[in-house]
Amino acid sequence: xxxxxxxxxxxxIRRLRxxxxxxxxxxxxxASREALRPxxxxxxxxxxxxxxxxxxxxxxxxxxxxxxxVARLAPRRDFRYTSTGKARKVAGYGKQKxxxxxxxxxxxxxxxxxYARGIEFGRDKSGxxxxxxxxxLFLTRAFEAQKAQAMGTLATAIRRHLDNQTG
Length: 167
Known about the structure:
Layout: H1 10-17, H2 21-46, H3 53-57, E1 58-65, E2 68-75, E3 81-82, E4 89-91, H4 94-102, E5 106-107, H5 112-121, H6 138-166
Parallel strand pairs: 4-5
Antiparallel strand pairs: 1-2, 3-4
Helix pairs in contact: 2-6
């Protein structure tokens, strides 16, 4: 879902065009992350909790893609956790995973993005039903509830970061 196109802010667009590529990327990624923070808080409040792993994996990522700044609110691909429940599983990589596997934990192969899709829409990519309760729509509801606020925050944050950049 597209949240923002900077239109109707001629002064901001003029000031942004004066920045170098690196400065522009810095200003826009910081501002977009700041604008999505309330949406992240809402999504974490709305997500159904079983183990808490999905809620903990939600994060904001922002960067340059195909010439545009893209900010996402989604589970982190590199999210690591160690379960202490009955199953005793470990996800992630590196030293944490090696130590947990040495203790007898099993490797968790669940992809957080596919898991979140199953919870969000009630089905996974293959179309099988994953949730008896149906779609949770926690990300969709967070987006709809916070998009107007995020738009206002985005313009304000861009102005503030421009002032910090030039001042």
